[in-house]
Amino acid sequence: MGVVFGVLGPVTAWDGSGGVIALKGPRHRAVLARLIIARGRVVPVTRLVDDLWLDPPPDAVGAVRTFVAALRRALEPERPPRAPSRLLVTEGPGYALRVGVDGVDAWRFEQVVSAATRPAEESLRGLDEALGWWRGPAYADFADENWARAERSRLAELRLRAVERRAEAMLALGLAAEAVPDLDAHVAEHPWREETWRLLALALYRTGRQGDALAVLRRARTLLVEQLGIDPGPALRRLEDDILHQADHLDPGQDAASRAWARAADAYNRTVASSSWARLESTVGILRNLAMTGGGGLEAAREQRMAAIAAAEELGDAELTARVIGAYDVPAIWTRSDDPEQAAQVVAAAERTLAALPSGLNEAARARLMVTVALESRGGRTGRGREAALEAERIARDLDDPALLAFALNGVFMQTFHRAGLARRRDEIGAELVELSVRHDLVTYEVLGRLVRLQARSALADFAGADENAAAADGLAERYERPLVGVFTTWYRALRLAASDQVPAEEVEAAYRDAIARMHGSGMPGFEAGLPALTELSLRLREGQPAQTDEHTEWGPYIPWARPLVLLAEGRRKEAAVALRKAPDPPHDLLFEAMWCLAARAAIAVDDRETMERARDELAPAAEELAGAGSGLVTFGPVSRHLDDLDTALR
To answer: Collapsing DSSP states into helix, strand and coil, what is residue 111?
Structure first.
């Protein structure tokens, strides 16, 4: 990103690396502020003179030009002498600032607040970030200037509206108790805003504080009548009446659910002994459901899972431990572990429990342990995970247990990456998951099946089929509250654009920006790590450009196969050849073919024939697929094109 301007506080400018740009004196900043307020329109020099001085000096016009020249040097230090400025341009009788919406914090803030209706979680996240951009009152160093007054007032009103919209999002998410302190402070600072009083009273009511809610509304009435001589508006009057009559619509579904949860939890605590094994098994059920919520819930479930397993092992009952481990049947779609160390611990516990179980008894429990081994061994090279998955599938089919079979098929899917070119096999697994789930009402596994098919059909360039499964997955996610599904379908739709030669690069980049934003806070570090950098690389190669060379790029787990291309882009061919030779074989996961294609591209560039031959052999089974598209995230084009390039280089 280039220069960014800040006006939500003192007027400031930052360079592309986030460093503050020295803007010299107050009149330099005043010129800049005046041009930002004009939003790209030309401000005549005479207007600037009038705005900067009450009694302009004789050389005021020359002084303005001096200020502009100094600003240009500060904002574009690498601009060659006499080259026209790209930011602060001269047009006709004056100057204009040419910067995009992302270049001014106030403009970005306005976009966030004025955005069309979005899901409450996304809205809250965006407003939290946007409110954090404020460093003080807008245009703080020009509070007394007439030319800044209207814009300062407009932005101040916009900020108040943002605080209220944030509170609305919190209420929609069932965070009424968390919203109360902020609303209380807000109404104290801005007592004339009826909407804030309304939100505060509603938040109090939803936390069970009906009396406090009514007291707030009476305070608002007294203040408005005594200080302004006006009665409360219809929204406040209606809310007071609804609270007095305990109107049903004031109790949204999430609060009713919260009350039901509290009653059930209370009954459980009163009736089930604290030392009961049932508590341990129930804990795993709660963790399983918590993981389905995504974000913090997924992270919390992961953190507590090993504690539950350790507690079960301490009791010394292998069958109980098997139930505790196997009950965590959270569907998995991504083939890189979020916590490899914990995954290894889970596998070790599952293997210990398998060895301790009496042979020939409780085959379903054994199968669930084997699926756990398969899922937590994703990307492994030993073959144990695949062996365990296939054995679990056999047991599930013998027992004719649909839920167990769905779990086992997830394990089989996760182990269907032992070589390239297996997209059709994964599509078959996905299709069986969908059919099985529809027949037996296994909604969570129907979602999984749809996502598996989305990935597989993308690899096979069948985007009509992938579209159908993406739409079905989104429909299920909306109906059954599965927030993580949208992360994958948003990425898929960006991939869909990237795979087309007809879509402009700007449109593809915008789609990926949305996908990256949606990914943050998903609670899946194994998914997030390095993905933005890999995406940028795929887009650069799509446009025939070399790899990005920014030293701050976070490549995550993809660095061994990206680094040779980065070195080549920097002209360091010998170092690239060394880095390529040191790179390990790509892990057997959803980006297996993609990493081999990157290795192939580097090998051709440095004439590493051994790596070229290995890449050709590894990629040959996937000749009909799109490299990387099986991830549902990115693509590096047809594998056949990479194979043709390898064959040409090897002749």
So the answer is: helix
